[in-house]
Design a protein that fits this description.
This protein is α/β, with parallel strands linked by helices. It has helices at 44-52, 74-80, 97-109, 123-135, 151-163, 181-194, 207-213, 231-236, 238-245, and strands at residues 4-15, 18-29, 33-37, 59-64, 67-68, 82-85, 169-173, 199-203, 216-221, 224-229. It has 2 domains: 1-81 and 167-257, 3-Layer(aba) Sandwich (Rossmann fold), CATH 3.40.50.300; 91-166, no CATH class. The protein contains 9 helices and 10 strands. β7 (169-173), α6 and β8 form a beta-alpha-beta unit. α3 (97-109) crosses α4 (123-135) and α5 (151-163) packs parallel to α6. The longest helix has 14 residues, at 181-194. The radius of gyration is 19 Å and the shape is globular. It starts with a strand and ends in a 12-residue tail after the last helix.
Length: 257
């Protein structure tokens, strides 16, 4: 039986006269990678911000695992099992990978410590950092200062920071942004490896990436979902072609290996 982990019901957010989301209704199934696509200004990032609790909608509801979370602040959504990564890396560049991950573990567990220098003395934080680093392929650079990492590896670390919160729903905002093709392939494999234990909502402009990764795709236009379905359905949907993909359906893409 299909389990809906997240649902938005007529979610609306206005900035002056502009409706960034306009009675936006969406259902996300547990264990899937659900991509959100649409032209610039369609409302994708605004929708993610409302799901994460960074923006409060003007009307409508957000249900997570059947619970109304519309008015919950960010930290309570994180505690409930929702984590987000951003288009631009949000890391501590002067600290090591280990210290960055330990901070994320600390935020989840509620540990306190006096300054960054004692992170290594907290064995459970250190264990959590090492476990997460292994999950995202960063074990070999645990004690490397983040500012010295390539952009692609910083993106891996940002994913690790979100995973250290042990979410059940992960909001990914352009995780491949700024990466080269090899780094994007590596990130894609990491995201695929999260399924089905973790549900992901993915915002990504690269259609090749979207069609490779997503189990289902929702298309936003002017703040509303105009179509939802698997890649093949979306690729050939006349409304989607007219609104976003261009004059011809996108050709099939090979799966990430």
């Amino acid at each position: 039986m299909t389990h809906i982990v997240l649902e938005t019901d007529r979610l609306t957010k206005r900035f002056g006269g502009l409706a960034a989301t306009d009675e936006c209704s969406l259902e996300v199934v547990a264990g899937e990678i659900h991509a959100l696509i649409g032209p610039n200004g369609a409302g994708k990032t605004t929708l993610l911000a409302q799901l994460a609790g960074e923006l409060r909608p003007d009307s409508g509801r957000i249900l997570f695992e059947g619970r109304d979370i519309t008015r919950l602040p960010v930290h309570r959504r994180v505690a409930a099992g929702i984590a987000r990564s951003f288009q631009i890396t949000t890391l501590f560049p002067k600290f090591t990978v280990r210290e960055n991950l330990a901070l994320a573990v600390q935020a989840r567990t509620g540990h306190s410590f006096d300054g960054f220098g004692v992170v290594a003395d907290e064995s459970d934080l250190d264990d959590g950092a090492e476990e997460t680093a292994a999950q995202v392929g960063l074990s070999d650079v645990l004690d490397t200062v983040v500012g010295a990492l390539s952009h692609g590896r910083q993106r891996q670390l940002e994913l690790g920071m979100a995973l250290a919160c042990r979410p059940r729903l992960l909001l990914l905002d352009e995780p491949m942004a700024g990466t080269d093709p090899e780094e994007a392939q590596a990130m894609g494999r990491l995201i695929l490896a999260l399924r089905p234990a973790l549900t992901c909502i993915l915002v990504e402009h690269d259609m090749d990436v979207v069609f490779r990764l997503a189990d289902r795709i929702s298309v936003l236009v002017a703040g509303r979902v105009i179509a939802t379905g698997p890649a093949e359905t979306i690729r050939t949907d006349p409304q989607v072609i007219a609104a976003y993909l261009g004059a011809e359906p996108i050709a099939s893409t090979e799966s990430i290996r």
